[in-house]
Amino acid sequence: MPTPRPRFWFASVVLALAVPGSMASAQGGANAPAAAPAAQAEPQKDLLGRDTPRGTVLGFMSAARDGKNDVAPLYLNTRLRGQAAVDLARQLYVVLDSRLPVRVNELSDRREGSLANPLRPDQDVVGTVSTATGQLDLVVERVTVEGQSVWLFARATLERIPDVHDEIDLVPIDRYLPGFLAVRIVGIRLFEWLLLIVVLPIGYRLLGLLGWAVSKSVTPYLQRRFHVWDGPITHHFPGALRLIVLGIVIRTASSSFELPLLERQFWAVTAFFLAICGLVWSATLLNAFGERYIYRHLNASRLGESVALLRLGRRVADVLVYAAAFLLVLWRFDRDVTAVLAGLGIGGIAVALAAQKTLENFIGGVSLVFDKAVRVGDFLRLGTTEGTVDEVGLRSTRIRTLERTIVTVPNGVIASASIETVSDRDKFWFHHFVGLQYDTTPEQMRAVTDNMRDLLARQPGVELESVRVRFLRLGAFSLDIELYAYVFAHDWSAFLEIQEKLLLRVMEIIERAGTAIAFPSQTLHMAEGERVSELEEGAKSKADPPGPV
């Protein structure tokens, strides 16, 4: 039964997505040559596009759909002529249009065919359809017509087509639809456009109620089974899962009906994009959940400086998801992804060369986070800068100085510099020199040193093995005693409090011993008699100058 002629520019768009390069020849039917690379000299192209298996299938479908009864039989390897050949072509078109798999982009687009069976290099299977007697392989074979090698539908396949055609029970949906719904817009019936534009969003909303139904039915059971359960599982069916379910339903439904190939291709593409969107959505939600989970874990572990790196990791994961989806779409429509990957590689090299300093700082920031060399809250010395780390970013680190100013240091500089982390001390060094006056007696010195040593040994928080109190040296103006010990404290403020108590006790020990702390001074000792004689002689020499000789 002939079909009405739709506007085939939309058909070209849909099938061109699935069949790269060849739709131009297929849409033009007998008037457009098949596209082929011009990099090397090739034999003359067939005007009907029969140079490749794909060109033969698409060219035949286009000619039969357009009702070109003089062109369609030219794609058949048959002895029939005239009306008999036209009827066979129409039967073949009905079989292909109703049962040919929608993945026509998998057909070989090479002159030599797919060479799937090396024993039969001149034959290529373009699809398999189900019949009452089993599976039927639709085969095209390479023959020579007027001195030119072309691909035609094989005679063995054409012999089975009339029987398969009689099995097909095409129930025209148009007869059950109002006339305006059967109108075809760019090859697709208005009824199906309404399904896509109206029914599909409604189905999406109805699936959202599934979460509410599951919550109402499952929550009571969980409350009885687990007494601690006091809330619903969910109130909404996740939108990402809804898209995936709709894609599966559309794919299953379109495969269950013997729709025309163009419409099956239309619904297959719709189902594919719904599933891809659902998967991408699910993957990004999973990335966000992973970020939140790890963020809570990092907060518990006081690793807040990893937040920037964690956020970057999530963004990179999202980009990888989108890139994978894009490549999957290209693969689904038989596009060459090699050029895309090569372009990404060249672009990555160009970006790396143009952003060397940025990459240096970024890699430095990553190394700081993983090596834990710098953490938020650390007090450190970096060259002449001292302060507390306020933020560790991907490009730079912010340090709040003792003057409460912010110093921003690139991570590349920090990664290559010597960093002294003061706040990472496991214990604090109590190290002082006490100078006593020179009139201190040995007994007083022994009492002072013994009492100081006992003070440090009995002080809580002082490491006993590190205690050292020694009369160290005879200084220029004092007798020096060294106090040496390590003190365990939570932070610098706690250590200062302990140190203050110890120094006050040291002063008390010195005072009880009857001596005192020396201060820089010099004492001049002179013999009293010698000094008076010298002064008298000096005065006399000035009063009586020597007379002339």
Kindly describe this structure.
- The chain is an alpha+beta fold and 549 residues long.
- Helix content is 50%, strand content 15%.
- A 5-stranded antiparallel sheet has the order 9-8-7-6-10. The chain has a 3-stranded antiparallel sheet with strand order 1-2-3.
- β1 and β2 form a beta hairpin.
- The N and C termini lie far apart (163 Å).
- Mean pLDDT is 77; it is low at 1-40 and 228-234.
Please provide the ordered H/E string of secondary-structure elements.
HHHHEEEHEEHHHHHHEEEEHEEHEEHH
Note the total helix count: 15
Structural class: alpha+beta
Largest sheet: 5 strands, antiparallel
Low-confidence segments:
1-40, 228-234
Calculate the mean pLDDT score and round it.
Answer: 77
Separation of termini? Answer: 163 Å
How much helical structure, as a percent, in the residues? 40-55%
What's the count of strands? 13
Gross morphology is elongated
| Strands in their spatial order, largest beta sheet | 9-8-7-6-10
Oligomer category:
single chain
Instruction: Classify the beta-strand content into a percent band.
Output: 5-15%
Radius of gyration: 47 Å
Q: What are the salient characteristics of this protein?
A:
single chain; 549 residues; alpha+beta; five-stranded antiparallel β-sheet; three-stranded antiparallel β-sheet; 15 helices; elongated
